[in-house]
Each structure stands twice: as structure tokens, then as C-alpha cells.
Amino acid sequence: GDSVTQMEGPVTLSEEAFLTINCTYTATGYPSLFWYVQYPGEGLQLLLKATKADDKGSNKGFEATYRKETTSFHLEKGSVQVSDSAVYFCALSRGKLIFGQGTELSVKP
Amino acid sequence: KAGVTQTPRYLIKTRGQQVTLSCSPISGHRSVSWYQQTPGQGLQFLFEYFSETQRNKGNFPGRFSGRQFSNSRSEMNVSTLELGDSALYLCASSLGSGDKETQYFGPGTRLLVL
After folding, report:
1. DSSP 3-state of B83
2. Among A47, B80, B86, B102, which residue's CB has the most CB atoms within a 10 Å radius?
3. pLDDT tens-digit readout, A20-62
4. Within an 8 Å CB–CB cutoff, is residue A49 touching chain B?
5. Which of B85, B95, B35 is nearest to A36 (CA)?
6. Chain A residue with minimal CA distance to B108?
7. Nearest by Cα to B90 from B42, B29, B27, B57
8. Do A89 and B92 touch (CB under 8 A)?
9. Which residue in the set A46, A96, A101 is minimally distant from B58, CB to CB?
10. Among the partner residues B4, B45, B106, nearest to A97 by beta-carbon distance
11. Which residue does chain B place closest to A38, by CA atoms?
């Protein structure tokens, strides 16, 4: 069946470091792909999305490219801030969302 | 435009009781989905309602049920609560139903079963 795999966390970075969170998926066809972010005590916020192969989603300095060849949708940001500390979820859509296990990011000043 | 709202935000119940959670979608959205989030199982899909009809259902026991009203508001009910039902319950809404829709989440209802 469909599934999403994310890199294990927690990830700890210094402020202004480069961020990559790996996400790979298993699915038939080309589902829409999403990144959501969850801050402590809150629900999920949509960070970015891509609906077809080679699409690049971007928002707030974060980017991810839908790569069908490698079935990946890695999240990147050039310079992280303390305020980016949160848990990040990669997901694919089959009507319902199928989530990865989440990656906790901690950014230190 | 107001986001997805969920009530109550926090709830404490005891085993064997039942609970009803409420979700109001973004105005104009006709699809509402529910998810359960736990540390052990992560985020799992419960069910989706679109135009008052259940469109999709996850792998949860029949104790978990839901409904949607004509104004697209949705409720989920859990009967005969078990300790393992302690979780954050998230509601998400989207304009329509299908693979290409974007789901927007509410803040969640945190349920603790004692």
C-alpha cells in the first residue's frame, strides 16, 4: 500500500544552518505531496505542496521538489531560524492523507 | 477567512464513557476529515465526510463514528472509551473530496482517558 518514510529525528541545527529533511514515498501513480508543520500544542499547518512530478513547492523560505524518479519530496531551507523549531510531517494524498512519522527540528541560537 | 475550529480543546473522560468532538470547517469547504495523533502510532486517518456522506473510512473499530451536517460542520463520537483512545484528534477541511484537494487543519482536541 501507499506509505511515506521520513528521516529519523530529532535534528538539531544552529541558527542560519542549512536544513534538509528527507522524505520518500511509495505509491501508485502520482499523488499530491505535502509538508505540514506542527508547533508545540498546536494542530498541523500546511507548509507547502506539489501536485505533479517536477513541481516545486515553496513557502517561508522552505522548498521541496516532487521527484518521481527517486520518489522523493525532500524539504530544504537555506538558513533556519530558532522559530523554525517544530515537528515536520511529509504526507501524500489519496483523498485521505498518509503521513510520515514526523521529524522534530530543534534550532539553537 | 476563519480557519478550522474544533471544540472542546481539551477533554478528560474515564474509561467506558463516550465523547463527542465538534469541528467547524473553513467557510465554503464541504469536506471534513478526522485524524488521530498519538506518540506511538503517529497520525492516522479516521474518516472523511463530504456533503453529509461518509466517503472514506480508516481502520478503526466501530466505536469511532462521525457525521456531517448540512452546514458542513462535523462531529465525531467515540463510545465506550478505552485508555488507548487518549490522543490528539485533528479535524481537517477541504473544498472538495479527492487526491488533489488540500486539507487545512484545526488546532485539535486533546482527549485524555483515565
Report:
1. helix
2. A47
3. 999 999 998 889 999 999 999 899 999 999 999 999 999 999 9
4. yes
5. B35
6. A43
7. B42
8. no
9. A96
10. B45
11. B107
**Which band of pLDDT confidence, cut at 50, 70 and 90, is reported for residue B92?**
very high
Q: What is the 3-state secondary structure (H, E, C) of A39-87?
A: CCCCCEEEEEEECCCCCEEEECCEEEECECCCCECCEEECCCCHHHCEE
Q: Could you tell me if A52 lies within 8 Å of chain B, comparing CB atoms?
A: no
Peptide bond into A10 cis (omega under 30): yes
Kindly state the average pLDDT of the residues B37-48: 96
State yes or no: pLDDT of B100 exceeds 90. Answer: no
pLDDT grade for A16, boundaries at 50, 70 and 90: very high
Cβ-defined contact of B105 to A98 (cutoff 8 Å)? no
The set of residues, in sequence order, having a beta carbon less than 8 Å from that of B96 and lying 6+ positions away, is B30, B31, B50
Residue A88 C-alpha, separation from nearest chain B C-alpha, in angstroms: 12
Residue B1 pLDDT grade (very low, low, confident, very high; cuts 50, 70, 90): confident
pLDDT digits (tens, 9 = 90+) for A79-98: 999 999 999 999 999 889 99
User: What does each C-alpha distance from A11 to A5, A74, A103 come to in angstroms?
Assistant: 16, 14, 7
**Which residues on chain B are in Cβ contact (under 8 Å) with A100?**
42
**Are the Cβ atoms of A43 and B97 closer than 8 angstroms?**
no
In terms of Cβ atoms closer than 10 Å to its own Cβ (0-12, 13-18, 19+), residue A45 is middle
Q: In this structure, are residues B13 and B109 in contact, taking their beta carbons and an 8 Å threshold? A: no
